[in-house]
Specification:
It is found in: Nucleus. Residues 1-32, 80-129, 304-385 are annotated as: Disordered. One of its GO terms (biological process) is double-strand break repair via homologous recombination. Strands 6-5-10 form a 3-stranded antiparallel β-sheet. It has a 3-stranded antiparallel β-sheet with strand order 7-8-9, with helices on one face. A hairpin with an 8-residue loop joins strand 8 (272-276) and strand 9 (285-287). It has helices at residues 2-17, 25-97, 135-151, 155-160, 163-177, 248-256, 295-324, 370-384; strands at residues 99-100, 106-107, 204-205, 216-217, 236-239, 245-247, 261-262, 272-276, 285-287, 291-292. It is mostly helical and 385 residues long. Helix 2 packs across helix 3 (135-151). The longest helix has 73 residues, at 25-97. Among the domains are: 2-93 and 134-152; 236-319, no CATH class.
Length: 385
């Protein structure tokens, strides 16, 4: 909606610059500002909600990982902690019952008896108990430690590397700019140093000696034809390793029939079937798990195909109009001012009735050559003689 309204305002701006329709300028500009603010507020809310969803997913995974860690490590850790504390207690008792004499020999107090060895059971005879860390405390400590590790990451690492956030970012950018806008910038440019999303991020190319203002914004260029079938896309599927899209059945059939495998550790028949990307110049090895439906790419392809169909329909209409204009219309006699009027049209004599024939006196007759009269006079004189 914002993209369409922005294009509308740009068209109106040309008329306003020419001094036309100025009475609606202030009102339409105000509506545009209000729409931009609404879109910004809605986008900010969606941004926060999307981050919360990602954080919740990470927290859920953190709980699962912590419970799994407890299952595998808690018994051994408790046993090690118990043995450590018992060893410390034995050492303390031994130090209390021994005393060094002046020449370094160990002497026993007369009224003390040797301390017996460790007693069986978790509770010593003096009534003190071994203080072990509870499982719940181990769980809470690990959860807090992993949470601190996560929150210490940059927003780029926390969100820009997340596939769900990437899809969300693509949807927002597509809604704002459409097909004619600049490409979405690299994920490393999505957040500023303060952590907020960078406004108006676009895909730019900057030379080593170019000024800050000298930025070239690339337009998105996308083909609607599959590089395998050379037919229009029906069910496009996109690689996650390279920027190429294929017809789903075509690329999956190629992978299914491939004899190459990756990730099998060098063992024959192990690993996933894979093919080299069919696009010229791309050497990425693709498996079935490396391609997926990209909703942004699919939407763009559908819009491009629809635009091509509409353009073709308009072209056919123009051709039909040209065919209709081939017949040359009949015009009346041309007047002195260059115009023609059918009511002054004079029909041909071959088609006109006798009553409309011009008078006889207006018909030019052949009166002969003047030299013929001189010859006739000479002949008459000869006869008289």
């Amino acid at each position: 909606m914002l993209h369409g309204h922005t294009a509308y305002i740009e068209r109106r701006q040309k008329k306003w610059d020419a001094g036309r329709n100025l009475d609606t300028k202030d009102e339409e500009e105000r509506e545009m500002r209000e729409l931009q603010q609404k879109v910004k507020d809605a986008t900010d809310e969606l941004e926060q909600s999307m981050r919360a969803v990602i954080d919740s997913g990470v927290a859920a995974q953190r709980i699962e990982d912590a419970l799994e860690w407890l299952r595998q490590n808690a018994p051994a850790q408790l046993e090690q902690e118990y043995e450590t504390q018992m060893t410390q207690r034995a050492t303390q008792r031994q130090s209390q019952t021994q005393r060094l004499d002046a020449d370094g020999d160990v002497a026993m107090d007369e009224d003390e008896e040797p301390t017996p060895g460790p007693t069986p059971g978790p509770t010593p005879l003096d009534g003190s108990r071994v203080a072990l860390t509870g499982v719940s405390q181990m769980y809470a400590d690990r959860m807090q430690r992993k949470k601190d590790d996560y929150t210490s990451l940059s927003l780029t690492a926390r969100y820009a590397r997340n596939n769900d956030y990437r899809a969300f970012k693509g949807l927002v950018h597509d809604a704002m700019y459409g097909d004619s806008g600049p490409a979405l910038g690299h994920e490393d440019t999505w957040f500023t140093e303060t952590g907020s999303p960078a406004p108006g991020v676009t895909n730019t190319q900057r030379g080593a000696f170019e000024d800050d203002d000298d930025i070239i914004v690339d337009k998105v260029k996308m083909s609607t034809t599959c590089p395998i079938t050379f037919q229009q896309y029906k069910d496009p599927i996109t690689s996650m390793k390279c920027p190429h899209t294929f017809e789903k059945n075509a690329i999956l059939d190629m992978i299914r029939n491939s004899s190459n495998r990756v990730g099998g550790g060098g063992q024959r028949g192990m690993g996933e079937k894979a093919i080299e990307c069919p696009c010229t110049g791309c050497s990425q090895m693709l498996t079935a798990s490396d391609v997926r439906t990209d909703p942004i790419v699919a939407r763009k392809i559908r819009r491009l195909q629809q635009a091509d169909a509409e353009e073709a329909a308009e072209s056919d209409d123009d051709d039909d109009d040209d065919d209709d204009e081939i017949a040359v219309p009949r015009h009346g006699p041309v007047q002195l001012d260059g115009s023609s009027d059918d009511k002054f049209k004079v029909p041909s004599r071959m088609q006109a009735p006798a009553s409309q024939q011009p008078p006889q006196s207006s018909i030019i007759e052949d009166l002969g050559d003047p030299s013929d009269e001189d010859e006739d006079e000479d002949e008459d004189e000869d006869e008289d003689e």
